[in-house]
Predict the structure.
Amino acid sequence: MNRVFFERCPRQVAADLIGCRLIHEVTPGVRLEGTLVEVEAYLGDGSDPGSHAHNGPTGRNAAMFGPAGRFYVYRSMGIHLCVNVVCGAEGEGAAVLLRAVEALSGRERMLRNRGGRGGRELTSGPGKLTQAFEIELAHDGQSALRGPLRLLCPAGDEVPRIQAEPSISLSKAAELPYRYFAADHPDVTRSPLNRRARRHSSPYLRGP
DNA sequence: GGAATGATGTACT
DNA sequence: GTACATCATTCCG
């Protein structure tokens, strides 16, 4: 995985990210690791009304307009943090939101971070995974290619079956954004939790 | 199982 | 003031 990987269309990046690893080396020797099983693409160039970048750069979304391959971390609904990877060309404002992972290592520490909520509730949502992985606002703008918090493509040949779920209608856009998830992990997120998905009764990481 | 709601920070009108 | 790229809790069946 290199910077060119992220300099493509966010939908291609999103599809290729499924099955990749999210790694957070909190301190030397303490390593949290998981497999990405659900992401969501946000297009750039003002073409995605649902994107934080749609109305141009602000203090919060500045990282989205920086070079590809860096994290964009922001506070959602006042309580939770969400983490994206910046994609496309610099200044384009494209990104992929990391929505769910399957925990691989450091599960006990994640469980503590999550206040004891484990099982499917451990990392099955944008706010949950940032809490479990100890992702903070300080990671905003940092590289996703190297550093304590980073993404890694597995060398193996385990290529998960990918499903794309076009969110057929945001109130503002026709068919954006796009959610991608590993079909092999239908249980990682609960059924529709966010209002938008509920409103349009679109399946939210439901099994085949 | 599914639906409604409060908590809470920030950007923006 | 309003709208959110959410989550946990509390209802109801």
User: Anything to note?
Assistant: Residues 40, 42, 50-52, 74, 76-80, 82, 84, 97, 99, 117, 121, 125-128, 131, 177, 193-196 of chain A lie near DNA strand C (CB under 10 Å from a C1'). Confidence is low (pLDDT under 50) at residues 166-176, 190-208 of chain A. The radius of gyration of chain A is 16 Å.
